[in-house]
Amino acid sequence: MQALFDDYVAAAGLATELVNTAPGVWHGEDQLPDTAALAAFLAEHGVALRVGADDLAAVHDVRARLRSVLDERDADAIAAGAAALVARGIGTVGLEADERGRQQWCAQPRPDAALAGRLALLAGVGVLGALRALGPERFRDCASDTCSGVFIDTSRPGRRRYCMPDLCGNRANVAAYRARQRSRGTP
Ligand SMILES: [Zn+2]
Fold first, then answer.
1. Which domains can be identified in the chain, with CATH numbers?
2. How many beta carbons lie within 10 A of that of residue 3, not counting itself?
3. In the chain, N or C terminus with fewer CB closer than 10 Å?
4. Which neighbouring-strand residues pair with 104?
């Protein structure tokens, strides 16, 4: 599993979704409570890595560190935090051809890096790529009042508002709808 510095969108998306599995975002309920849930999460995100019994706690640790990076709003602080994550898993950096044959800077994990180190590398490269291409203002808190999630907005227009658009966007819509109904005096 390699990570391309120029192709940050998928890795930044993985970083966002990983931090938003944390119990703090789900009123105490961890969305990665066991190795089966972690394996399903990785498969969903196209990360072909086997999950061992020792990996879960280490991934939770990476997730917490990644959250503190996504909580930063200062470019230097984001870059420093992401670089520390990358350092956990990195083996080599070099130019390699991507699937279209273009030469791209590519990070390869250490051959002996465990799952959490490889995930940290991938997420860290996603954060660094997004920071460089889009800037620190794309690191945001979820706009839903009832959600403590965070996200990196890699959309072209840059107007994303929610950490989990399907869920938090709808929650906010439902809340606004109910508030309008209440103000009209209907149940
Ligand atoms: Zn949210």
1. 3-134 (1.10.3300.10)
2. 26
3. C
4. 96
Task: Tell me the CA–centroid distance for residue 150 and ligand 1, in Å.
Answer: 7
Closest to 51 measured CA to CA, from 126, 118, 107 = 118
**Phi, psi dihedral angles at 170 (to 5 degrees):** -70, -40
157-174 pLDDT tens trace: 999 999 998 889 887 677
Beta bridge partner(s), residue 4? 106
Determine the distance separating the centroid of ligand 1 and the alpha carbon of 164, expressed in angstroms. Answer: 5
Please tell me the distance between residue 88's alpha carbon and the centre of ligand 1 in angstroms. Answer: 28
> What is the distance, to the nearest Å, from the Cα of residue 187 to the centroid of all Cα atoms in its chain?
39
pLDDT at 1: 64
